[in-house]
Amino acid sequence: MKRRKKKLFTPGPCEIPLSVFKAMGHIEHHRTPQFKQVMQDIQNGLQYIFQTNQLVITLCSSGTGAMEAAIVNVFKKNDKVLVVNGGKFGERWGKIAKNYGLQVLELSVEWGKAVQVEDIAQVLKKNQDVCGIFIQALETSTGVVHPIEELAFYLKKLSRKPLLVVDAISGLLTSALPMDNWGLDVVVAGSQKGLCLPPGLAFIALSSRAWEMAHVSDVPKYYFNLLVERKCLEQHTTAFSTPVTLMLGLQESLRLLQRQTLPRILDQYNKMQQLVLKTLTSWGLEIFSFFSSTAVIGVRAPNHIPSQLIIKKLKDDFDITIANGQEELKDKIFRLSYMGAIQMQDVRFLLSCLKKVLQDLKVPIGKKRAFQIKNREARL
Ligand SMILES: Cc1ncc(COP(=O)(O)O)c(C=O)c1O
Questions:
Q1: Which end of the chain is more exposed for a tag (fewer CB within 10 A), N or C?
Q2: Ligand 1 centroid to 192 CA: how many Å?
Q3: CATH says 18-260 is which class?
Q4: 202 - beta bridge partners?
Q5: Cα separation of 33 and 47, whole Å?
Q6: What gap in Å lies between CA 8 and CA 26, rounded to an integer?
Q7: Where are the domains of the chain?
Q8: Is any atom of ligand 1 closer than 6 Å to the C-beta of 63?
Q9: Strands of the chain, DSSP E
Q10: Under a CB-based contact definition with an 8 Å cutoff, are residues 336 and 360 in contact?
C-alpha cells in the first residue's frame, strides 16, 4: 500500500494516525452506558500518559483553556506567583495570571536558554510568600526544555513548597514527566501535539495539594470549574456536552500510545532529535535552543535569509509545512517538529527536502559546526 505523504512538521497541529481519523468518523450520544466505557478507557490512558493516580480532566478547549483552568481553580486573588518567562508561552502564564488578579513575579530567561534552578531559588529566598511557580516543560516558541525534574527535586526540600504548575502542552510524551513521582502539582496538556489528535481538547491533572487549594480558590469561574468536572468524571461523564468525535479519536490515540509504551515513545523522540541535530550541524546550521527539546528544534535561519523564504519554498516545492519563529524570533529562526504520527523515514524525507531548499537558496551546505548544543534526553 502506498504511504500517505506526511506534510505537517509543525509544533502543533501534527500528523494524525489513520485509525484515529477513522475513530472520529462517527457520532454517538455522550450520556449512554457505552460512552461511559469510552470515558473509562480515556481515563486509564490519560493516567498512564501523565504517570499519575489522580483523575485527569479533559476540557473542551485548546491548551490555553487548561492553563486558564489551572490559574482560576488552584489560586486565590492576590496570591503571589512566580512565572518563568523564556518565550511566548511563559509570557502567556503571566498574562493569564495578571488577568485574574494574581500578583505576578516574572523571572525573565533569555529566549533560547533554559531557566537555572539557582535563579528560581534566589527569587524564592527573597519572596517566601510565593505560592505557585508556573513554567513550561517545553517552551515551544524556542524549542527549549526547562529542568523540571531538577526544579521539582529542589522544591521538595523546602519547608514552604510553592505549587509547581507545569505547562506540558508540547512537553507531554516528548519528555519524561512522571507527575506523581516528581511531585508535580498541576500538569496541563493539549490534544494537537504528542497525543496525535486535532486541536480542541485540553487536559489537566492536580496533585492532592492542588485539589485542597481548589476548595478555597476565590477566582471567578464557570465553564472551567474543575471541582464540578471532577464530580462528573467520577461518574464517567462531563458537565457539558462532550466533544464526542474528538473523544473517540482520543480513545484510539491513547490505545496506540499505550501499545507503543512510554519508554519506546521517548526513545523514538530521542533518536529523531539526534538525527536532526547531527544532520543540521553537519550542514553548518546553528541550533537556536541551548537545551534543545527532543521534538521541536529551533534553527537559526542561515545567511540572513528570512525564515519565511525557506518555509515558503518547502511548502511550494514539497508541500511540507514547518513553523517560523514567533514574535521577536520571526524570520530569524525556523522550527522543525515531528510530534504525532511521524516516523524516522518521514524525518529523513523532511531533511532531504530542506537540504534541497537550502541549496536552491545558495546556502553553503557542509561547513560542519561543532555539535555544541546541550540536549536533555527524555528517559523515564
Ligand atoms: C508550550 C505551549 N503552551 C501553550 C500553548 C497554547 O496552546 P493552544 O494554542 O492549544 O491554546 C502551546 C501551543 O502551541 C504550547 O506549545
A1: N
A2: 9
A3: alpha beta
A4: 59, 190
A5: 21
A6: 25
A7: 18-260, 262-375
A8: yes
A9: 56-60, 80-85, 103-108, 130-136, 138-139, 144-145, 163-167, 186-190, 201-206, 291-292, 296-300, 323-324, 333-337, 374-375
A10: no
**10 Cβ below 6 A of ligand 1:** no
ω into 302 cis (within 30 of 0): no
pLDDT tens track for 97-137? 999 999 999 999 999 999 999 999 999 999 999 999 999 99
Residue nearest (by alpha carbon) to ligand 1 atom 7: 63
Is the CB of residue 194 below 6 angstroms from any atom belonging to ligand 1? no
Distance 189 CA to ligand 1 centre (A): 8
Residue type, 34: Q
Name the CATH superfamily, with its identifier, for domain 262-375.
Aspartate Aminotransferase, domain 1 (3.90.1150.10)
Q: 51 in ligand 1 pocket by Cβ < 6 Å?
A: no
- Please report the atom of ligand 1 found closest to the CA of residue 202: 10
Residue whose CA is at the smallest distance from ligand 1 atom 8: 63
Q: Could you tell me if the CB of 270 is within 6 A of ligand 1?
A: no
SS3 80: strand
